[in-house]
Amino acid sequence: MSQFGPAYPTRIEFHDFLEWVARRFADVVDGTAVTAVNPVPGSPDVLDVVTALGTLRTRNVVLATGLTPNLPDGLVPGERIGHSRDLLDRLDRVADPRRAPLTRSSR
Predict the structure, then answer these.
(1) Whole-model pTM?
(2) NADP among the record's keywords (predicted)?
């Protein structure tokens, strides 16, 4: 905040920021039905995500379920599975917080 009140970005600055962010997610697949997420044998940090478009290999999967904390049947909260509401309480146990995917709802 400055002496003249809060400093908000201009519409153009905000647009530039959103474009910058979008470029960082150019390889994200959105709006595609996932039929399976399978571990890759011999590679504990890698998953195969099966979709109608084919199989994608990844190290991270983000599942956005809405406003209410929810995990699909079969997923149990643990070291690598959790909800963003618990992130601050768990941050000291995250090996590399720069690689922690975080999803939240927005209005």
Answers:
(1) 0.47
(2) yes
